[in-house]
Amino acid sequence: MARCGRVLLLLLSWLTAGPVLARVRHPVPVLWMMPVSSGSGRENLTAGLVPAVRLALQDLQNQPEPLGTYEIQLQLLDPQCDPAEALRVLFDTMWAGPKYLLMLGGACPAVTALIARALPALNLVQVSFVAPPPSLSNRKWSRNLVSTAPAPRSLNPAVVKLLRALRWRRVGLLSRDGPGLAQVKKDLIRQLLKADVQLAAAESFSGDACSRLKELKDRDVRIFIGQFEDDSASEVFCCAYRLNLFGPRYQWVLAAGGTAGGTAGWRLGWQPAACSAHSLLTAADGAFRLQVRPLGTASAPGVSGRTPQNYQDSYLKQLLHEGSEVNPLHAFAYDAVWVAATALSQVREAVRIREKYGAQRNVTVSEEEEVKMLLEAVKKAEFEGVTGPVSFRNGERMATIELIQFQGD
C-alpha cells in the first residue's frame, strides 16, 4: 500500500512536470504521512492536497542550485487516523529504509500528538501543514514538529491587542466545549489577566448556549468574546437576539477556528427555528471576527516564482481537471513542501562541503547531528510563500490575522 502510494505520487508529479534542462538531481527520500481515508475507506482525505504537493514538486524542479539539485521523493504513509496503525507503518517503513530524516504532512490530532513525541527518538523532523493540536502547546514534547499552519491559540494575542487598542477593560467569555479547546481557552484567560483585562465570567456550553449566555447577561457583561466554530454562530446569535444582547451597548468579538474562506457560513449558516435570518443579521451586526488568512495578498512573486493568486488559479485548474474538492489546507501544504525542500538542500550542501573540504576529510556527519542541523534550518526558514510571509518563532508559525466587521447583510 505504501509503495503504491509513492509510485502514484511520483507519476503524478512527473506527468505534469513538463520539459526541463537535463541535469543531475540527487534523490532525497521524505516520508509523507497523511490519512488517505478515515479508516472506513469511503473518504479520500488527500485528493484535494495532491495537486498542491504536485505543484510544489514541479516548481522545485525549475529552481537554481542548490535547491534545484535535490529531488524530493515522497513515501506515502496512511495512518488511517489510528495512532497504533500510524506507529506500525512508520516503524515498518523506517526499518525497511532508506534513511529518512524528514516527514512531511499531517494527520488526525490523536496521531499527530503521539508521533510528535516520538520524533526525537526516531531522529526525525516533521514539517506539517495541519495546525498542531492544543495538546502539543508544550514545546518540550513536540520540539521536532513544525507546522506551516498557525496554532489555534495564535488568535489570542490578536484578541488582547484589539481589546487594548479599543480600551475595553471588562469582558465575558463564551466558549464551546470540544477536544483541545480547553487549552485555547486557558491560554486566552492567562493573556487577559496578563494584560489587566477584567474577565467578568467565563462560560462554556456543549448543548444549550442560551443558559450560559444568560449567565453572562446577569453579570452585566457588555463585551463578549466568542470561542466557538462557525456551526455554532447562528445558535449563539439567535440566543443573543432573544436576550436582547445586541445594539450599541454590546459588542461581540469572535475568535475561534475557521479561515477567511468560512465567512459565508458564519454569517448565516444553520437557521434556528426560533429566529429568522433578519433576526440573526440584526444580532450579528457590528460583530468583529478574527481569523487566519489562508492565502497571502502579495502581488509580487514569492520564493517559488508564483504569486498567491497565480498559485490558486493553477491549483483550482488541476482540481477541476481531476474532479476533486478544495481542501482548505492546500496552500499550507504547498508552503510546507518548500520549507522541507529549502531546509533539506541547505543541510545536504553543508554536509557535503564539510565532508569534502573540512579539516577532517572523509569523516561522515552523524545522523543525530544531521537531524539537529535540519531542525535548526526548518525553524530558521523565512520566505514569502503563497500563504504569506513564512517564518517561525519558538517552532510555531507566525500568523497573519485578518480583522473583519460584519455590517448589515
Unreliable stretches, pLDDT < 50, 5 or more residues? 1-21, 259-265
Structural class: alpha/beta
**CATH-assigned homologous superfamily of the largest domain:** Response regulator
CATH topology annotation of the largest domain = Rossmann fold
Q: What order do the SSEs take from the amino end to the carboxyl end, as H and E?
A: HEHEHEHEEHEHEHEHEHHEHHHEEEEE
So, CATH architecture of the largest domain? 3-Layer(aba) Sandwich
CATH top-level class of the largest domain? Alpha Beta
Q: Let me know the average pLDDT.
A: 84
Largest sheet: 6 strands, mixed
Distance between the termini: 50 Å
| Count of runs of 4 or more consecutive helical residues | 13
| Total individual domains | 2
The helix fraction, in percent, is 40-55%
Number of strands: 15
* Spatial strand sequence of the major β-sheet: 7-6-8-9-10-15
As a whole number of angstroms, the C-alpha radius of gyration is 23 Å
Strand content: 15-25%
